[in-house]
Design goal:
Chain B: It is a multi-pass membrane protein. The complex is a heterodimer. Chain A is an alpha/beta fold. In chain A, about 35% of the residues lie in helices and about 25% in strands. In chain A, a hairpin with a 2-residue loop joins strand 14 (about 325-335) and strand 15 (about 335-340). In chain A, helix 14 packs across helix 15. Chain B has one domain (about 15-325): ABC transporter involved in vitamin B12 uptake, BtuC (Orthogonal Bundle), CATH 1.10.3470. Chain B has 14 helices and four strands. In chain B, helix 3 (about 45-70) packs antiparallel against helix 13 (about 275-295). In chain B, the strands form two sheets. Chain B has a two-stranded antiparallel ribbon. In chain B, strands 2-3 form a two-stranded antiparallel sheet. Classes of the chains: A alpha/beta, B mainly alpha.
C-alpha cells in the first residue's frame, strides 16, 4: 500500500535574503478568507525597486488572491501594508493606483473597439478648451509618447481588436506606465506569446527595471523563473512556503515546495489489477477548441487522470470526446466504434460528462431533483417515448437512495441542494442513462471535504462495477490518490503519461511546467 | 408547543407544486370573471354568447398552443400571424383552382409547417436568436403574401369547407371541438412524452440540455414546425369562417396569441408554462374582451386592458415564485 501524500508540509522559511534599501512595497501577515476557503493565510511579501520578483504556486495556491489584494480588488481580512517603509492602507483599486501599483491580468481589460490611444487614457481623457469636448490631438500626442517609451510600433489610432495578443499586452503595460506605475504585477504574461514576442517583452521589462520599476511576475515556466527572476516566492494552499534567490535554488527544489498539498482522503481505493476492454480511445484528436494531436486510452475498471495547469486544454479534451466541440482531425472511438455527431450521439454510445460548472452546464436549476435525475435517461427509461411521471419519480427515488442524495423529496427544486448533493444528481442522471464511460471535469470543485470523500467513493464504486472513468482535476493530490494512471497536458497537448508507479505530484508538476 | 404548530401538525396538507397553484389561481380568475359578467349583463350567460366566446378563444388558442411550445424552449415565434396570411391565401388559391377543400386544407397546413421548419432551421442551425429570425420571417411572409395577392381578395368557398369555421355539431361550433382536440393532444405531448420533457429541459437550461445528450437542434426544429403547423390550422379555420382571403388576414393575431401564452403563466425565459395554462390564458383574454363588448365599452380600450392584464399576470407569477 502506498503511503498517502498527506504529510504536513514542513515550513523552511529562509530569512528574506539581504537587500539594500527599503522595499517599495511590503505586505505583512496578509490573510483573506472566503466562505469555506482560506485563500491567503498569513502571507508576507516584499518587493524592491528595480527587481523582478517571481511568484510561484500551483493552481489555487493563492497567487491570484494575492494579486487581487495587491491591486485593491480584494480587501485583506488581516495584515499590514508598507509603502516605502511607511504604513499605508489599500482599500480600493484607487488606493492601489495612488501607490503606483498596476496589475496586468491574463484577461486583458482593454476595450476592443476603441483605439490604442483611447484605451491607454481610458477614463483620463484630456478635455478640450470647449467645455464637454475632448482634445483629440493631445490624446494621440501623449499616446505616441507612451508607445515610444515601451517601443511599440503601432499607430495609436489602431483599434485594439486588430492587434495581436503580444501588442495588446504591450498596450496594457503602456497604460499602466502612463499611470505612473512603480510596481507592475503581471500574471503569466508570456502564456500566449511567441518566442519573438516574449523576447520583446523581456527587453521592455529590463528597461523598466533599469528605471527602477518593481516587477512582480507570476509564471509557470521554470526557464523564465531562472532567466528573469531576482527573487522567488512560493505559495501553497494560501500560505507562504518558501523564499529563494535563483542562484541558490534549483527547479527540483521549487517543485518540491509547490507540491505536497494536504488532502483528506479517508477511504481506501481498490486499484484494479486487471483493467478490462478499451472503452475510450482517441487517435490524433484535434478540435475546434485548440487541442492538438491527443492520443489517450481508458479501459473498463480504470480511473484515468487528465491533469495539467488550468488552460492546458483538459476541459477541451473532454468536450471533444463528448462531441460538444467539433473534431477537426483524428478520431474518438467508444467501445471500438468511431464516434460521430454531437453530445446526443455520445450519450447514446454510453458516454456521460459531469461538467466543471455544475450549475451552468450540468443542471436545470429551475426544475426538480426528479426531473434532473430523469433527463439523460429519458429514452432508456421510456423506450416507447411515452413519459410517466410516476415511473420517473420511482427511478429518482432509487437513485436518491443509492447515491444518498440529501433531499426532502424528489419534487424538491435542485437549486436548494448543497454542492455535493447537486454533484450527485449530475452523476445520478448518467446512471439512469446507463452510462459506461464517465468523464469528470473537476468533480470536487466547490464541494466540502466530507462530500469529496463520498464523491470519490462513488467514482470508485462505478469502476468496480465495470465503468471507465476519465477524471480531470487541478488538485494533483486527488489525481495521485485516486487514479490508476494519468496523462499530463501542457499547451493543448498531452506531454506525458504517468503509470501508477510514477504517479506523484512532483512528476505531474514537473511535466506540466517544463518547457524545453 | 405553540398553537400554530399544533394546527399545522394536525392538518393534513395537500402539497401542490408552484405551477399547479398558479394554474388554480388562473382558473379561479376565469370563474370570477364569468360570475361577474353574468351579474353585470344579461347577455353574457346565454348559450349564444358562451359559444361565441369559446369560438373566439379557439382561434386564439390554435396560435397560442403552438407558440407555447416555442416559448417553453426559451424562444419566441413572431411570424405566426404573417404565417396565417400566406397559408390562408395559398389554401384559398388551391381550393379555387381544384375545387377540393381537402387539397386546400393540406396546402394550408403544409405551408404553415414549412414556414415553421424554416424558422427552426434558422434558430437551431444558423443560431440566429429566435426573436430576430421570426421577426425577419414576419416581413418576408408579408412581402410574399402582398406580392402574391396584389391587393386581390379570394372569396366564395364550398359550403362543406365553410363548415370547419362556422358549422355546428350537436349545437357546438366545430372550432371548439378542434380546440378541445388540440388541447388534449398538446397537453399529452408536453407532459407525457419524452420529447415534451426534453422541450422543458431545453428551456430550463439549453447548455445543460445539450451536454446531457438531448438532441437540442432537432427538438427546436420540431417546436417551430409545430408552431407553424398550428398557424396553418388557424389559417384554415379563419378562411372557412370569413369565407374570403386577403393579404392581411391574421396580421393582428400575433400579439394577442403571445398575450394568451403569458397570461397562461409561461415564462419567456423558457422551461415554465403549459398548454393547459395557455388555454386558460386564451379564455381569460377572450372573456375580458367579450365582457367589454357586452358592457358597451368603447373598443379602443381593448388593447390597453390586454396590456394591463399581461403585466399584472406576469407580475403575480413573479411574486408567487419569489415567495417560495
Amino acid at each position: 500500500m502506498r503511503a498517502v501524500m498527506a504529510t504536513t508540509p514542513r515550513l523552511e522559511l529562509a530569512a528574506p535574503p539581504a537587500v539594500p534599501g527599503t522595499p517599495i512595497l511590503e505586505l505583512k501577515g496578509i490573510s483573506k478568507t472566503f466562505p469555506g476557503v482560506k485563500a491567503l493565510d498569513d502571507v508576507s511579501f516584499a518587493v524592491w525597486p528595480g527587481e523582478v520578483h517571481m511568484l510561484l504556486g500551483e493552481n489555487g495556491a493563492g497567487k491570484s488572491s494575492l494579486m487581487k489584494v495587491l491591486c485593491g480588488a480584494y480587501q485583506a481580512d488581516a495584515g499590514e501594508y508598507f509603502h516605502n517603509g511607511e504604513k499605508v492602507e489599500i482599500r480600493s483599486p484607487a488606493d492601489a493606483r495612488r501607490f503606483g501599483i498596476a496589475v496586468i491580468f491574463q484577461e486583458f481589460s482593454l476595450v476592443p473597439y476603441l483605439d490604442v490611444a483611447q484605451n491607454i487614457f481610458l477614463g483620463r481623457e484630456f478635455p478640450s478648451r470647449i467645455p464637454g469636448l475632448l482634445d483629440r490631438r493631445r490624446l494621440y500626442r501623449e499616446a505616441q509618447k507612451v508607445l515610444d517609451l515601451i517601443g511599440l510600433e503601432v499607430d495609436p489610432r489602431t483599434k485594439v481588436h486588430q492587434l495581436g495578443v503580444a501588442q495588446q499586452q504591450m498596450v496594457e503595460i503602456g497604460k499602466a506606465l502612463s499611470q505612473d506605475a512603480r510596481i507592475l504585477v503581471m500574471d503569466e504574461p508570456t502564456a500566449a506569446l511567441s518566442d519573438r514576442e516574449t523576447e520583446r517583452l523581456f527587453e521592455v521589462m529590463r528597461q523598466l527595471q533599469a528605471k527602477g520599476v518593481a516587477l512582480v511576475y507570476i509564471s509557470h515556466r521554470m526557464a523564465e523563473v531562472f532567466a528573469l527572476g531576482d527573487r522567488i516566492t512560493v505559495l501553497r494552499d494560501g500560505k507562504l512556503v518558501g523564499r529563494a534567490l535563483p542562484g541558490e535554488t534549483s527547479p527540483d527544489e521549487l517543485v518540491r515546495m509547490m507540491v505536497g498539498r494536504n488532502v483528506d482522503m479517508s477511504y481506501p481505493r481498490r486499484f484494479a489489477t486487471e483493467p478490462g476492454e478499451v472503452v475510450l480511445e482517441t487517435k490524433g484528436l484535434s478540435s475546434s477548441n485548440g487541442i492538438r494531436d491527443i492520443d489517450l486510452k481508458v479501459r473498463a475498471g480504470e480511473i484515468v487522470g487528465l491533469c495539467g495547469l488550468v488552460g492546458s486544454g483538459r476541459t477541451e479534451v473532454a468536450r471533444a470526446i463528448f462531441g460538444a466541440d467539433a473534431v477537426t482531425a483524428g478520431e474518438v472511438r467508444i467501445f471500438g466504434k468511431q464516434r460521430t455527431g454531437g453530445p446526443d450521439a455520445a450519450a447514446f454510445a454510453g458516454v456521460g460528462l459531469i461538467p466543471e460548472s455544475r450549475k451552468a452546464e450540468g443542471l436545470a436549476l429551475i426544475r426538480t431533483v426528479s426531473d434532473n435525475l430523469a433527463v439523460a435517461g429519458l429514452p432508456k427509461l421510456f423506450p416507447n417515448m411515452m413519459f410517466s411521471p410516476g415511473k420517473a419519480r420511482r427511478s429518482a427515488q432509487e437513485l436518491i437512495q443509492r447515491l444518498r442524495i440529501a433531499t426532502p423529496s424528489p419534487n424538491q427544486s435542485v437549486a436548494v441542494l448543497s454542492g455535493g448533493n447537486q454533484q450527485k444528481v449530475v452523476i445520478g442522471k448518467w446512471l439512469a442513462a446507463g452510462t459506461r464511460l464517465f468523464i469528470f471535469d473537476e468533480p470536487t470543485r466547490g464541494i466540502d471535504v466530507g462530500a469529496k470523500s463520498e464523491i470519490f467513493a462513488l467514482i470508485d464504486q462505478l469502476v468496480a462495477e465495470g465503468a471507465a472513468v476519465l477524471m480531470i482535476s487541478s488538485e494533483q493530490a486527488e489525481i495521485v490518490h485516486v487514479c490508476d494512471r494519468a496523462y499530463v497536458m501542457r499547451g493543448k497537448r498531452i506531454v506525458g503519461e504517468l503509470g501508477r508507479a510514477d504517479l506523484s505530484e512532483e512528476n505531474i508538476v514537473r511535466m506540466g511546467m517544463h518547457d524545453e | 408547543m405553540s398553537l400554530a404548530g399544533d394546527i399545522s401538525a394536525g392538518t393534513p396538507r395537500i402539497h401542490l407544486s408552484k405551477d399547479m397553484q398558479q394554474l388554480i389561481y388562473r382558473l379561479l380568475a376565469a370563474g370570477l370573471l364569468c360570475v361577474a359578467l353574468s351579474v353585470a349583463t344579461d347577455a353574457f350567460f346565454t348559450t349564444n354568447n358562451i359559444l361565441n366566446v369559446l369560438r373566439q378563444a379557439s382561434l386564439l388558442f390554435f396560435l397560442a398552443s403552438g407558440l407555447t411550445l416555442v416559448i417553453l424552449t426559451g424562444g419566441l415565434d413572431l411570424s405566426v400571424g404573417a404565417n396565417i396570411g400566406l397559408s390562408a391565401c395559398l389554401a384559398a388559391t388551391v381550393i379555387k383552382a381544384t375545387g377540393s377543400p381537402a387539397l386546400g386544407t393540406l396546402t394550408g397546413l403544409a405551408t404553415g409547417c414549412a414556414i415553421g421548419v424554416c424558422n427552426g432551421l434558422m434558430v437551431a442551425k444558423l443560431r440566429i436568436p429566435s426573436f430576430i429570425a421570426t421577426y425577419g420571417m414576419l416581413w418576408v411572409l408579408h412581402g410574399l403574401t402582398y406580392y402574391y395577392m396584389a391587393g386581390e381578395t379570394i372569396h366564395g368557398f364550398p359550403p362543406g369547407f365553410r363548415q370547419i369555421g362556422s358549422g355546428y355539431f350537436l349545437g357546438i361550433p366545430i372550432p371548439v371541438y378542434l380546440m378541445i382536440g388540440f388541447l388534449i393532444a398538446g397537453t399529452v405531448f408536453a407532459q407525457r412524452t419524452v420529447w415534451g420533457q426534453q422541450i422543458y429541459a431545453i428551456g430550463a437550461n439549453p447548455v445543460a440540455a445539450r451536454l446531457t445528450g438531448i438532441p437540442v437542434d432537432r427538438r427546436l426544429i420540431l417546436v417551430y414546425a409545430f408552431s407553424g403547423a398550428m398557424a396553418g390550422v388557424a389559417s384554415i379555420v379563419f378562411l372557412a369562417r370569413l369565407n374570403s382571403a386577403e393579404g392581411d388576414i391574421g396580421e393582428a393575431m400575433t400579439l394577442p396569441a403571445i398575450a394568451a401564452v403569458l397570461i397562461g403563466g409561461a415564462s419567456l425565459f423558457g422551461g415554465v408554462g403549459s398548454v393547459f395554462g395557455t388555454f386558460v390564458g386564451a379564455l381569460i383574454l377572450t372573456l375580458v374582451l367579450n365582457g367589454m363588448n357586452l358592457l358597451a365599452v368603447n373598443s379602443s380600450w381593448q388593447p390597453l386592458v390586454t396590456g394591463v392584464i399581461v403585466i399584472f399576470a406576469v407580475w403575480l407569477d413573479m411574486i408567487g415564485r419569489k415567495r417560495s
